[in-house]
Write the structure tokens for this entry.
Amino acid sequence: MKTAGLKASLTSGTARFLAGRMLGLAVVLLVASFLVYGLLYLVPGGPMAFLLGNRTGTPEQIAAIRSQYRLDDPFLVRYAGWLGDALTGDLGRSLVYRQDVTDLLAARATTTLFLVVYSATLIIVGGLVAGTVGALRGGRTDTLISGVSSLLLATPPFVIGVILVIVFARGLGWFPVFGAGDGLGDRLHHLTLPAVTLAAGSAAYLARITRACVQDELGREHVETAHSRGLSPARIIRRHVLRNAAVPVTTVVGLTVAGLLAGAVVVENVFALDGIGSLFVRAIMQRDFAVVQAVVLVLVASFVLINLIVDLLYHALDPRMAR
């Protein structure tokens, strides 16, 4: 009876946890979409002045722009129409490329997604391994890992990118400088330098956090108790140290991976990758606001979704957090 009651309580707590997180996700996305759409109306001179820029539009062009952005309707009506279209996958039409924004993003999403996943893998594997080894080994190993981490944290990503290009692309000729490649193997080859550039600083930060968390857990009373009971060091590290250290580390991993979406904007421009980040920069310079709105909305939605995944991982690591 007690076991059944405990299971029912955990199931109920999980359901409430998921419902609350999904509701929070919906509210954040709604507020973010309102702010993203409202940016167009906060620029000096109003939306028409921003969209035309230094150009003198013909009556037909002005009429087309006013129709596309529903400028003759009340603001809330325009926002509701835009949000309804966005929910169905219609993110508007680019004034510069003369294409649907959804098609523009879809054509470039593969490069950005591959870059982010590749970088996230390097960050998680490199950061966790380096931080854990530094905490457990100590001595010169810990000093070396801490020194390299500090150096990477102090170096801007674009500087790391330039150094990698000079050494490994121009000097040794191991990797190409430009392009994203075709096929899995070719993409891995082309995107290695951009992924390392994007991941270096974040991996160093994760290594320092992991090291601190593991060292903190090593000094806990329950770890000393496990040692006194004669448990093997491997089992103690796996079940009592790494498991407990995983909760704060998961927070850093989630925020770091979410931040890669913004960092990809810089890296894609450094390596001339035709991804969403480089499209975003060009759209800002060309005043292609439909593209700017769409990219910002996608970035916000991705950030919120990743944080939802982190919350679910919290619950998996420690179900008490759902209560």
Summary: The chain has twelve helices and no strands. Residues 233-270 form the longest helix (38 residues). Residues 102-322 form a domain with the MetI-like fold fold (CATH 1.10.3720.10). Residues 34 and 79 are 7 Å apart (CA to CA).
